[in-house]
Amino acid sequence: MQLMPDSPLRRATLEVESHVGAQGWDQAPRLFALVPTAELVAREPALADQLADDPGGITPVEQDGIPADRSLEDVLLDITWPDTVAGCAAVIERIMLPPEAEESLPDDPDDLLAVVAAHPDRREVRLVAAVTRDGRAHSAVRAREPLDAELLEGPDLVPGLIEHLRRTLA
């Protein structure tokens, strides 16, 4: 496995994945503001003992839950972040199929859900995407099975989710 270059954004992405992953599977989508750690400590000195002493670090701050009656993508259309937020991250669980399965998928959304749910090669995955105002992105993908599934990571593993997040920072 090739290691990704370390950066504050990568560390924040991996922290979000670890935090959400520790709570198991079958979770609702989650959204995080990414705040420069130094600025957070300056505003909230009592947090200094809880946060890493990393002057260039980024701290994920979990936001209130996504409404159950709306998709994460729909909610992201309505979000804009204040200037104090350097970036944002989202976590969502999805079912993925191998590329060759896409050719035989039906167009009807209801039929599509049924076919994907029953497909023998489907994989449940947790997707994490994080972006910053200056255009950087990092993402991580973990399969539900096997239990010790390797965490895949890179700058553009989930391009659609990354694009949705970037729009919230514009």
Compact overview of the structure:
The mean pLDDT is 89. This protein is 28% helix and 25% strand.
Characteristic key phrases:
alpha+beta; 6-stranded antiparallel sheet; 5 helices; 6 strands
What this model shows, in words?
The protein is of the alpha+beta class and 170 residues long. It is 28% helix and 25% strand.
Helix content: 25-40%
Point out poorly predicted stretches. none
The tally of helices reads 5
Please give the alpha-carbon distance between the first and last residues: 34 Å
Number of strands: 6
Specify the structural class: alpha+beta
Quick one: biggest sheet? 6 strands, antiparallel
Order of helical and strand elements = HEHEHEHEEEH
Strand percent estimate: 15-25%
Give the integer mean of the pLDDT values: 89
> What is Rg?
17 Å
- Biggest sheet strand order reads 2-1-3-4-5-6
General shape: globular
Present the secondary structure layout:
Layout: H1 8-21, E1 30-36, H2 37-43, E2 58-62, H3 72-76, E3 87-96, H4 109-118, E4 123-132, E5 137-143, E6 152-154, H5 159-169
Antiparallel strand pairs: 1-2, 1-3, 3-4, 4-5, 5-6
